[in-house]
Amino acid sequence: MADGGRLHTPQEALDSLSRGLAPLACEWVALEVAGDRVLAQTLHARHDTPPFDNSAMDGYALRAADSGKVLPVSQRIMAGQQALPLEAGTCARIFTGAPLPEGADSVIMQEEVDVRDDGAFIPAGLAAGNSVRLKGREITTGTELIAQGTRLNSAALGFLAGQGFDQVPVYRKPRVGLLFTGDELKLPGESLAPGQIYNGNRFMLMDLLVRFGAELSLVEQVPDTLDAMTQALDRASRQVDVIVTTGGVSVGDADYVRRALESLGELDLWRLSIRPGKPLALGHIDQCRFVGLAGNPVSSFVGAWLFLRPLLGGLQGCKEMHVLPEVTAQADFETETAGRDHYMRVTLQWDGDSYRAYAFEDQDSSILRSCVTANALAVIKAHSKIMPGERVRCLLLVS
Asked: What stretches pass through the bilayer (predicted)?
């Protein structure tokens, strides 16, 4: 049972999330769908790259000792062709990526060669190894390619493809169930009755969860009753690895989520000393993790970045997702905090020698517009006063 009598720190929430957290099972997926997935095993080179000495440019291959002479052109070598041994006292017309013929030790770019009827005049002073990419220059057979726990970006996919990998071992994506409370919520396109609003959190959180590597297994609007929420949590806990809810974790009479969770599992932590996002609830139903975000849209946005990102990163074995990268910036705003840390939505801009943080004017937790252009959260400690020009710590919103 969580201690409901005090407000917890963000670090306590992260500690609660990481307790017993381990990556999900490994699965093999085709390379073309492996982007942003996390390697479950360290991969090693299957062959040298490049696999043979080759030309770094279009030009002529020769023995460096023959430079300063007119050399007959004995063969023409294109990329993908097999080269013949270079005849003594000759050169070979060669193109970028083509294999260096046996006997040659250098390449001279075509712009430096004077082509004549009797051959190609090569300027003197050419050094051995000029414009040659040696076998194994990038990596040699058996060398570590990419380490376990690496999130695969575009370059990594190309690197693996160059080694002949058509499938890679990755951690399974966390299955997430997203449940919304609030009878006042409607979907865009539906008509609004008096007192109703459109559910912006639905689309914001769906996108963020996918960016964080989740597989959205269910998305459901749950009626505002204790019985409906209890049934929804029970069903979801049998299908997914993580349940995420918005709303219903505060102290109002109609806030049923916390009570439903406690009837099925455990509430590990409730309420944070931050603004926005105070009503955060963390818990579990058997092996299924539970994260209850506040219903205010900015609270959901900030909570997703601070807590869902590291949780989903941990389930995928991705260390780089455990914490948000941070920079120090010069404040372009004035603010004063009371008893809770404030995570202000800011836009960072580079002014030539440092970052400058511009804060959206209205930082109320209902103003989702403050998040639209934000690329960082400025962390202002409780009981602080920040004046323009002071340095502030900023967490980068990088998925």
From this structure: none
Verify cis geometry, omega within 30 degrees of 0, for the bond prior to 194. no
pLDDT attached to residue 253: 46
Pairing outcome for strands 326-331 and 355-359:
parallel
CA dihedral 336, 337, 342, 344 (to 10 degrees): -20
| Residue 13: Cβ within 10 Å count | 26
* Partners of residue 385 on adjacent β-strands: 336
The CB density around residue 250, as the number of other CB atoms within 10 Å, is 18
**Dist. CA 381–CA 132, nearest whole Å:** 57
Cis peptide before 276 (omega within 30 of 0): yes
- Give the distance between the most distant pair of CA atoms in the chain: 97
What residue ranges define each of the domains in the chain, with the CATH number in brackets?
10-24+172-321 (3.40.980.10), 26-48+138-171 (3.90.105.10), 54-133 (2.170.190.11), 326-396 (2.40.340.10)
Q: Which amino acid is at 63?
A: R
In angstroms, the CA 204 to CA 215 distance is 15
Residues of the chain with pLDDT under 70: 1-5, 249-254
How many angstroms separate the Cα of 144 from the Cα of each of 105, 136, 168, 238?
29, 13, 14, 39
Please report which helix (H) or strand (E) contains residue 155, including its range. Answer: helix 154-162
pLDDT at 256: 85
- Residue pair 143/46 in contact (Cβ under 8 Å)? The answer is no
| Preceding omega of 50 cis (within 30 degrees of 0) | yes
